[in-house]
Every structure is written in C-alpha cells, then in structure tokens.
Amino acid sequence: MARPRQFDEDSVLEAAGEIFWSRGYEATSTRDLTDRMGLTHASLYNAFGDKRGLYLKALKHYLDRNLHSRIARMEATYSPGLTIVGYFHEVVERSLADAEHRGCLLVNTALEARSEDPEIQRVVADETVEIEAFFLRSVAAAQASGEIPANQPPEDIAKLLLSVQFGLRVLVRVRPERELMNGILRPAMAMLNLPWPLPESSPDG
To answer: DNA-binding region at which residues (predicted)?
Structure first.
C-alpha cells in the first residue's frame, strides 16, 4: 500500500510557484525546489513526476489563487465596466508592490514557452482564452447597459484588453513605474468611456 503524503500540497505548490516565478522554469533546478519546498528528491518525483509536472501544477495553483479568484471577485464587486477598471487597478498595484518585479507567472511562462513543448503552449493559450472571455463578458454587459459605447465589436475590445494586460506585465519587469502604466491605461479606459484610475468612491475588492 502506498504511503500517504507527509506534506501539505497547497503549501508545497505555493513554495514551488514562488521560486519558478522568481527564477523562471529553465533557471530553476530540482535542488532549488527541494530546498525551498522542504522535500527530498524522491518525494518530489513521487508526488509530481518531475520538474515539468511540478511546474504545471504550480502554475495551475498560481492561476487559481491569483487570476481566477481576482476575476471572480471583480465580477461580484463592480458594475461590468468598473470590473475592467478594478481588474487593471489590481494588476497595477500588485505589480508595483512586488519588490522583485517578477511580472506575472502566466506571462513569464508564455515568454519561456517553446515549440518543443506544445503542452505548455496549450496551457498558456487556454488561459489567454479564459482572460479574453472575461473581458468579453464585461464589455458586452457594459455595452448593453450603456456603460461602454457600442461603437466597436466587444470581441475586438476584449482582444485589445488582453494585449494591454500582457504588455503591462512584460514592461513592469524592467520599468516598474506607476506613470508608465497609467499612461497606457488612461487612453485605453478613455476609449471605453471608463475612468482611470479606479474612483475612490467605488468598492475596492
């Protein structure tokens, strides 16, 4: 009979995600991981298969804890238009608060993804589809309510917002400047007749 795991998987995946996020997949060794996670090599391989298997699980854990939970929280807190503003507000604040300027693990994975690893590429692509769908829901609902002008197809706006997010997350790694991000987001939000920054009177989730 297999022995039960002697560790908390959430804590281990959190630790693995932190080091992958800081160093990148290629630059992270299994020794780095076992030291940070407090596991032996045997435990790591028994639980996750290999470094790549661990990376995929750590990425999913990161996305569930950060991206997916943020989207759910924004959609439950704001009007459809302000959901977009609130989402980018949190991207900016989290980016500036990160002393290591790591950007976003999903975006970093996209930059590291190679054609020899189609599974990683597919995971990243699937996530971009989810983010685009979130923007599309928000834009379509805001256009229906009159919060956003209906002069552009919501599908096009969703794709534009997706590119804004990825561009911001790349730039912040080398230029973590509030005014740079504000200068990108002000015209993008103005195009949608949305305020930037987030109005202080709005609920801040």
So the answer is: 29-48
Helix (H/G/I), strand (E/B), else coil: 89: helix
With a CB cutoff of 8 Å and minimum separation 6, the contacts of 65 are 14
The predicted pLDDT at position 5 comes to 53
* Helix count and strand count (H, E) for the chain: 10, 0
pTM score, two decimals? 0.89
Checking 178-184 for CB contacts under 8 A at 24+ apart, the result is 178/92, 178/96, 181/92, 181/95, 181/96, 182/92
C-alpha angle 165-22-98 in degrees, rounded to nearest 5: 60
Note the Cα 86 to chain centre separation in Å: 14
DSSP 90-157: HHHHHHHH-TT----HHHHHHHH--TT-HHHHHHHHHHHHHHHHHHHHHHHHHHHHTSS-SSS-HHHH
Contacts 24+ apart (CB under 8 A), 132-136: 132/158, 132/159, 132/162, 133/158, 134/71, 134/75, 134/87, 135/84, 135/161, 135/162
Listed as ranges, residues in the chain with pLDDT below 70 are 1-7, 201-205
What gap in Å lies between CA 33 and CA 37, rounded to an integer? 6
Structure tokens at 62: 């990161």
DSSP assignment letter at 201: T
128 vs 182: CA distance, rounded Å: 23
